[in-house]
Amino acid sequence: MDPRQMVAQHIEGGAGVTVAGMRVPIEQAGEFGVIETGQDGRLIRAFREKPSDAVGLAGAPDQVFASMGNYVFSSEVLIDAVRADAADDGSRHDLGGDVIPALVAQGRAQVYDFSANEVPGVDAQERGYWRDVGTLDAFYDAHMDLISVDPVFDLYNREWPILSLPEPLPPAKFLFQEEGRTGRALDSMVCAGVIVSGATARRSVLSPGVHLHSRSEVEGSILMHNVDLGRGAVVRNAIVDKNVRIAAGAQVGVDADADRERFVVSAGGIVVIPKGATVEV
After folding, report:
1. Are β-strands 189-190 and 205-206 bridged in parallel, bridged antiparallel, or unpaired?
2. Per the domain annotation, does 232 fall within a domain?
3. What are the tens digits of pLDDT across the range 63-106?
4. How far apart are CA 34 and CA 20, in angstroms?
5. Contacts of residue 152, Cβ cutoff 8 Å, sequence gap at least 6
């Protein structure tokens, strides 16, 4: 998203607050906070949380605007709204639940149609990409988006780089080429500082500092910073948080019943190992 375009509309429209809206099928309205607009398609007339009777858009009755949680405020309007809310004993003092609905009631809220946002270097498949990663399965799916052959969110777009401050780590390293002990990563994203020592990673994201020891296997998984996977260990369909040590020969994502006894398992069957844990055999 290029936020400058949203800010430009906010200034041009003279709104107190502008809320980014993503077009979704009306059948999915019950999964989101929904923005209902007037006939002009811009002025917000209602801000509803997961409605069962949502009203479609004026120009597209089979769609609704889902709130993306991105806001642009005029500073004075925001200050006044927060002060008024602080003085209201009946308020929960929640931005989305109290402050913005108050501005909607005053006719000072507008929606920004995210589908109109133009990002350089983005093709038709990527246009309008957005994910709500509020569940474990959604978080997992967003990572799998990154490693698909034709990613719907392309980190390799040179015209719209994602700027960050990388750690001063060495390049990733792949060791050994022997029968059953070849360091390799297939359909995966491998970050700096990773060592794949005679191990195999498939359809996975290996974060900085991950170390895969000989004959270990990772498949369909997200390994956070500094995860250490012991010799011969197996991890499948999992989210492994930072600084986890998985002992040699241990298995995660292989036996569903055993996993549910030891770990959190998402509705979609993704095993989650918490930060700093040690997984023994």
Report:
1. parallel
2. yes
3. 999 999 999 999 999 999 999 999 999 999 999 889 999 999 99
4. 11
5. 125, 126, 129, 145
Distances (CA, A) of 185 to 136, 174, 190, 222, 240: 24, 9, 8, 13, 17
pLDDT at 165: 86
Tokens of 156: 């390799």
**Edge-to-edge strands of the sheet including 44-49?**
44-49, 33-37, 63-73, 17-25, 109-113
* Residue 58, in any domain of the structure: yes
* Spatial distance between the Cα atoms of 26 and 245, rounded to a whole number of angstroms: 44
Q: What CATH number is associated with residue 268?
A: 2.160.10.10
Contacts of 236 (CB under 8 A, 6+ apart): 217, 218, 219, 220, 221, 252, 253, 254
Q: What is the pLDDT of residue 117?
A: 94
User: pTM of the full predicted structure?
Assistant: 0.86
The CATH number for 95's domain is 3.90.550.10
Task: Return d(Cα 228, Cα 118) in angstroms, integer.
Answer: 41
* Number of domains, the chain: 2
Query: Is residue 160 situated within a structural domain?
Result: no
Report if residue 122 sits inside a domain.
Answer: no
Q: Which residues, given as ranges, of the chain have pLDDT below 50?
A: none
Query: Within this chain, do residues 18 and 85 fall inside the same structural domain, yes or no?
Result: yes
If DSSP codes are grouped into helix, strand and coil, which group holds residue 263?
coil
Domain around 232:
173-279
Q: How far is the C-alpha of 236 from the C-alpha of 219, rounded, in Å?
A: 5
Which among 70, 52, 65 is positioned nearest to 24, based on CA atoms?
65
- Residue 49 has a pLDDT of 86
Q: What percent of the chain has pLDDT over 90?
A: 83
Q: Tokens at residue 146, please? A: 């990154």
